[in-house]
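Weekly puzzle thread! Below is a chain. First person to post its structure in token form gets bragging rights.
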Amino acid sequence: MSLKSERRGIHVDQSELLCKKGCGYYGNPAWQGFCSKCWREEYHKVWQKRMEEDWELAERLQREEEEAFASSQSSQGAQSLTFSKFEEKKTNEKTRKVTTVKKFFSASSRVGAKKEIQEAKAPSPSINRQTSIETDRVSKEFIEFLKTFHKTGQEIYKQTKLFLEAMHYKRVLSIEEQSECTQDFYQNVAERMQTRGKVPPERVEKIMDQIEKYIMTRLCKYVFCPETTDDEKKDLAIQKRIRALHWVTPQMLCVPVNEEIPEVSDMVVKAISDIIEMDSKRVPRDKLACIPKCSKHIFNAIKITKNEPASADDFLPTLIYIVLKGHPPRLQSNIQYTTRFRNPSRLMTGEDGYYFTNLCCAVAFIEKLDAQSLNLSQEDFDRYMSGQTSPRKQESESWSPDACLGVKQMYKNLDLLSQLNERQERIMIEAKKLEKDLIDWTDGITTEVQDIVEKYPLEIRPPNQSVAAIDSENVENDKLPPPLQPQVYAG
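Winning reply:
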């Protein structure tokens, strides 16, 4: 089998990682293959078109209500008091319907306006000083960082506080709308620093990272895996999928990593630790930073194994293997959270965007992994997925002398358990077969006995009359010798 055919289910062309609109930035499955910039443009087009259609519908409904009301009023003259009450009720109902329709189709920023006015009387708990040590530390670091920018830093701090206060009132919005507000804030602040503050682009990126760290430390508990989304459902689905694929070996994925080499084994452990550590971070920037760290350990492991630099075709299968072996918690929630609230410029370009896009591709591959992708028959794939059997482990004769004794013993025990499992399955099959044979034999004997009884029924006859002497019927035979008489023998 050629190397090309072995990789047919895993290989991803680098052009597939880019935005499908052809802008040159990295795309993302969460943005339907677009980059952040193109996705926002498409989103705004669809949203604008929907808003126009909704306003047309609202205006049409309002005109119909007004025409119906005017027609009803002109066709009837003076009405009684009862009709006056009905007319007043009709007017109120018409006004309520039109207002409801307009409110339903209005911009998201107008939703819950009355509720916001009532809640505005109380101070927002999200902008108060938090008792968390991490929050206090981030606040101090952010203030110290902005002091170096003097007036520009004061303006940035003021805008950031206003944004946090506004986000407190927007919790009633969907997570997509909250993400849109956050991305707009990032874009507006960056443009204002470049145009008004004349801040160089390199420093703008550093400032935006600090702004993101400051605001997302406070918003994380509200926008990470919210109950209004299906993020938790996706987490459970991918966890169940990874558990079902525990039997996948590096050879099936064509992973060019030899874990028997101690340095390579250490790199694999570090890569798994980095991908798991992503869930412990609160800020999207810190979560995203775990992915390049994991990827660099993967590249080092491949380089040590092959004694040459790793390629993209080697990296993606190894990343898939690391995800399967590491089983990172809340993987989908972390990806969605990073996609929604990370500075989009970091996801579209650079090293972080490339590795993050590869992670999204790895998760998509795991969700769609099939027998053809692993070069297995459908029958073997179904047996492995159902847990009926597992792939044959490495033979003990092929171990190198320097291999870990614990690993050898582990594989030996796994082989023994696999053999015992196969023997148990064979015994159960033979026992069921024996049970079936005994039942069939019992049924057959019962049927034969019934047939014989029906064919030869049992007849009970009365007993014959007893005779006086055994020779009474031999009257005609008078030539018989006399019976023997006992004689005494005198010795």
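Puzzle host: Confirmed. Bonus trivia for everyone else. The chain has 17 helices and no strands.
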